[in-house]
Design a protein that fits this description.
Helix content is 34%, strand content 26%. By secondary structure, the protein is of the alpha+beta class. The chain has 3 domains: 99 residues, 3-Layer(aba) Sandwich (Rossmann fold); 70 residues, ATP-grasp fold, A domain (Dna Ligase, domain 1), CATH 3.30.1490; 236 residues, ATP-grasp fold, B domain (D-amino Acid Aminotransferase, Chain A, domain 1, 2-Layer Sandwich), CATH 3.30.470. The structure holds adenosine-5'-diphosphate (ADP).
Length: 446
């Protein structure tokens, strides 16, 4: 087992990883930017190293500082969490060269599956349906027009290196292509330092349903069922649940098998998520793979009753997966509590938390790094807590979520809690009748 794990991240996920390390008896090193000095991951790790000023590119993205921190403290493994360097193949490679185990897939797997256009080709080769689109990167407007005409409008311009819904544009007709190509390219360039775009058929009103996988170096490839992440705003997930209230058992099984075909074909190692769009006829199409732990992983942990991060660490240390897939139990729903103002177009609402009370009780889990008097910095994403509820069935989970959100008190900053309350009262949501257009169509927060 590892002697010491450095967590190259911040916020709730850094704390989440530290918790598992403690349970495994592995000492931890936190890294932090100057503005995160008073963060909980710094308090709860065994050691902490300041790696630079607040801007991510001078701290959480700064490979040389993170590696120095690992070397100074004698860490022999790095857990990247999600975001920042988690899907950076070069980082994974530099770790290996420095004799530090990157807790995640090999650089080769990240390059193959982390690149969206490449991953689609990989899945297509093994017979998994993918959203029709360009065979790879689209180089100019003329090429985009040609491909769009072939697949038929509407189409979507998407960033090859995309994430968080950035660098994405729906194009309804040819006259809009040029502008979409430019704006999506600029956005992708600014966000990911990579302006490459590809083109996809726009699936109208799909569900977003994804499969959790774990693969070890002993030939075990397992899938742990689905998460339905269709409740989104601007293509960003806000609520995730398992099981999906939409798909049949037959489709569920087929999606699981498709996910495993993909990871086997690249000899994948570690935790990963295979994402699909599902149309109203329950046809599913692969869109991308996330080669890391995801924000919504606790949903799977709650219905499968095991620790995904623990298994990630075991796999990286060369052990076989400990928790094989068992039948799921009950229903889990995760609510992302963001410091955002839903009444003002979800604009970020950083600042001091003047009063905080977390809900509790049976079947309620809170993953959060914030506390009374904590100052939410403006520099990073606005996720401040995840509330995950478990119930014996979906109705029970919804009732429990309502009572827990009523107990959830945050003063000083605006949050997405009132938005979640509205969703929980919506008949369509209660019936499980929703797709990715749900918020636009049904939730009016003002
Ligand atoms: P990101 O990596 O930025 O999260 P994804 O490819 O995972 O991007 O897509 C995010 C969301 O955008 C999906 O869940 C879905 O709501 C929407 N989306 C992506 N591709 C399409 C498509 N071809 N048709 C319709 N919606 C799409």
């Amino acid at each position: 087992m590892f002697k010491k794990i450095l967590i190259a991240n911040r916020g709730e996920i850094a704390l989440r990883i530290i918790r598992t390390c403690k349970e495994l008896g592995i000492p931890t090193v936190a890294v932090y930017s100057e503005i995160d000095r008073d963060s909980l991951h710094v308090v709860f790790a065994d050691e902490a190293v300041c790696i630079g000023p607040a801007p991510s590119n001078q701290s959480y993205l700064k490979v040389s500082s993170i590696l120095s921190a690992a070397q100074i403290t004698g860490a022999d493994a790095i857990h990247p969490g999600y975001g920042f360097l988690a899907e950076n193949a070069d980082f994974s490679e530099i770790c290996a060269e420095s004799n530090i185990k990157f807790i995640g897939p090999s650089p080769d797997s990240i390059r193959k599956m982390g690149d969206k256009a490449f991953a689609k080709e990989t899945m297509k080769k093994v017979g998994v349906p993918v959203v029709p689109g360009s065979a790879g990167v689209v180089h100019d407007v003329e090429e985009a027009k040609k491909i769009a005409a072939e697949i038929g409008y509407p189409v979507m311009m998407k960033a090859s290196a995309g994430g968080g819904g950035k660098g994405m544009r729906i194009v309804w007709e040819e006259s809009e292509i040029e502008k979409a190509f430019q704006t999506a390219g600029n956005e992708a360039g600014a966000a990911f330092n990579n302006a490459d775009l590809y083109l996809e058929k726009y699936i109208e009103n799909p569900r977003h349903i994804e499969i959790q996988v774990l693969c070890d170096t002993h030939g075990n490839f397992y899938q742990y069922g689905e998460r339905d992440c269709s409740i989104q705003r601007r293509h960003q997930k806000l609520i995730e649940e398992s099981p999906s209230p939409f798909i049949t058992d037959e489709v569920r099984k087929k999606m699981g098998e498709a996910a495993l075909l993909g990871v086997r074909s690249v000899n994948y190692e570690g935790a990963g998520t295979i994402e699909f769009l599902v149309d109203k006829h329950q046809n599913f199409y692969f869109i991308e793979m996330n080669t890391r732990i995801q924000v919504e992983h606790p949903v799977t942990e709650m219905v499968r009753n095991f620790d995904l991060v623990k298994n990630q660490i075991l796999i990286a240390a060369g052990h076989p997966i400990e928790d094989k897939p068992l039948d799921p139990r009950g229903h889990a729903i995760e609510f992302r509590i963001n410091a955002e103002d839903p009444e003002h177009n979800f604009r970020p609402s950083p600042g001091r938390i003047e009063y905080l009370h977390f809900p509790g009780g049976f079947g309620v889990r809170i993953d959060s790094h914030v506390y009374n008097d904590y100052v939410i910095p403006p520099n990073y994403d606005s996720l401040i807590a995840k509330m995950i509820v478990w119930g014996t069935d979906r109705r029970h989970a919804i009732r429990r979520a309502k009572r827990a959100l009523e107990e959830f008190k945050i003063e000083g900053v605006k949050t997405t809690i009132p938005f979640h309350m509205k969703v929980l009262e919506n008949e369509k949501f209660i019936e499980g009748d929703f797709d990715t257009s749900f918020i636009d169509k049904h939730i009016n927060i003002n």
